[in-house]
Amino acid sequence: MATIKKRGNSYSIRVSCGYDMQGKQIIHSMTWKPEKSMTLKQMEKEVQKQAVLFEEKCKQGLCLSNNIRFADFAEKWFTDYAEKQLKTKTIARYKDLLKRVNQAIGHIKLNQLQPIHLLRFYDNLAENGIREDIKYKPTIHITEAIDNISIITSKTALAKKANISVNTLNQAYKGKNISATSASKISKALGYQMDFLFQQDTKHTTLSAKTIQHYHRFISSILQTAVQWQIILYNPCDRVKPPKVEQKESRFLDDVEVMELFHCLEKQPIQYKTLITLLVYTGMRRGEVCGLKWSDIDFNNQTITIQRTLLYLPNKGIFEDTPKTNTSQRIIKVADTALQLLKEHKRNQSIQRLQCGDQWQELNYIFAQWNGKPIHPDSLTAWFKQFINKNQLPDVSIHSLRHTNASLLIANGVNITTVSKRLGHATTATTTKIYAHAIKSADEAASNTLQNILKKVQ
Question: What is the 3-state secondary structure of 123-135?
C-alpha cells in the first residue's frame, strides 16, 4: 500500500514493489503538489486518488522514481518521447549532445539535480580546449609540399591517396583551417610530420554561446518531460540562465548583387542555374528545394507545393522527411522566370534520362544526380561555395538566399504575414525577429516617402 507524507507545500507518495535479487527493497516515489485554490479537504481527497493511481502504475511496471539517474531517464526519454515526437535529424543531434551531458550530470539522480550542477556544466563548456572538433591551420610549408608532389601527380590523385576530398585538399593548400583527421591524412600522404605542415588553431577552442544554449534547451526538454510525467516537481533549467547569444544580422544580397548573381549563373549548368534562381525567387530551405519532385510543380497555376525535405546523416545517408514545421508544408506562387527555367531543365533532364538508359532511377526528383538519384544537400552547398569564390561574389551561403528573398520582399512593401507564409514560419513573430533589419529599413523608407509626398502638397 502507498504511504503519503506531507512535505511543505507538497506530498511525497512512496510505494514498495518488493525486493530485488540482492534483497534490497524496491521503492518508487513521486511528489504531488496541490493547486493553490484547493481546500484542505480537497487536497486530502486528491492525494489519496494520486496515491492509488501511482500504486497501480507501479504494479504494472509503468512508473519511474524520482531517484532515477539523469542518464537512465534520458535513455527512456529518447525511447518514449523523442523517437515519437521529434524529427530524425533533431534526435541525431540530441544524441550527439547527450555524450557530453552524461559525462557531466548523467550520474546525478533527478531528485538531487540542482541549478548549480547545470551552471558548473555550462562554465565547463565555455572553457578553452573543450571543443572536440579543434581545427588545424596549415603552415607556410604546406603549399611547397603539395606543389612538389603535384609535379609528379595531380591533386586528384593526391586526395585519393590521402582518402580525402579534393575540396579539403584545396582548402589546406589555400591556408584554410581543416579538421585534425584531414590534417593527419594529408601529412601522411605527403610524407611529413603533422606538426611540420599544420598547427592547432588556438583561437577557436571554446564552444560558442549559441552551442551552450543548445545544450541548455536539450537538458531542459528532458527535465520538462520529467515534470509532466510527475517524476520531479520542477525543472531546474527554469532557474538557470545560459550565456546570452549576441544577435547577428542575417547575411543577404541586395538587389544589385542579386542581378550580378543571375548574370554569373548564365554560364552554369541548367540544373544549378534553375536551382539557385528558384531559391532566390521562393526563399525555400536547402532541404526543401533538394526534395522537390516534378509532381510538386503546377505549371498551369504557377505554384509549387512544398511537402518534403531531403536531409543527410552519416549513419543514415540521404533520406526524405517532412518539412521543419507544420506551416512549412505550403503552396507558393512562382514567378514566370523561375517557371521557364524549370521547363528548360525538365527538357534537359528528359534527354539525360534517355542517354542513361536502364541506369536511370525513376525517382521523379527535379534536382538529381546523373542517374536520377537525389542530389546530396552538402554537395549543393560545396558547389555554391566554389561558384561564389570563382565569380568573386559576396561571401554568402545557400541559406543566405532565403534571407535575400525575405529582405527584398520586405524592402519592397510586402507585408510580414505574406512573407511569413511564403517562408513557412510558424508565426509572424519568427519572421519579425529574424528580419528586424529589413523591417527597420522599410519603415525608414516609408517615412521618407511620406515626407516627400507631404512636401509636394505643401
Answer: HHHCCCCCCCCCE
Cα–Cα distance for residue pair 423/84, rounded to 1 Å: 26
Q: Does residue 141 sit in helix, strand or coil?
A: helix
For 390-449, how does the pLDDT look when each residue is reduced to its tens digit (9 = 90+)?
999 998 999 999 999 999 999 888 999 999 999 999 888 888 888 877 777 766 666 665
CA angle, 179 then 182 then 188, to 5°? 140
Does 90 share its domain with 233? yes
Position 234 in a domain:
yes
Our CA angle for 352, 357, 358, nearest 5°, is 135
Q: Are 67 and 111 in contact (CB under 8 A)?
A: yes
- Per-residue pLDDT of 240-272, as tens digits, reads 988 888 777 778 999 999 999 999 999 999 999
CATH of residue 175's domain is 1.10.260.40
Work out the angle at residue 312's Cα, subtended by the Cα atoms of residues 424 and 385, and round it to the nearest 5 degrees.
Answer: 80
DSSP structural state of residue 373: P
- End position of a domain, from candidates 59, 90, 106: 59
Residue 450 falls inside a structural domain? no
178 inside domain:
yes
What is this structure's pTM?
Answer: 0.72
- Residue for grid cell 536539450: 218
Q: Is residue 113 part of a domain?
A: yes
In angstroms, rounded to a whole number, what is the distance separating the alpha carbons of residues 126 and 208?
7
The phi-psi region of residue 36 (left if phi > 0; otherwise alpha if psi is between -120 and 50; otherwise beta) is alpha
Indicate whether 152 and 231 sit together in one domain. no
Question: Which of 363, 336, 368, 334 has the alpha carbon at shortest distance from 349?
Answer: 368
- Joined together, the cell numbers standing for residue 172 give 589546406
Instruction: For 333, list phi and psi in degrees, rounded to 5.
Output: -75, 145
The total of structural domains in the chain comes to: 4
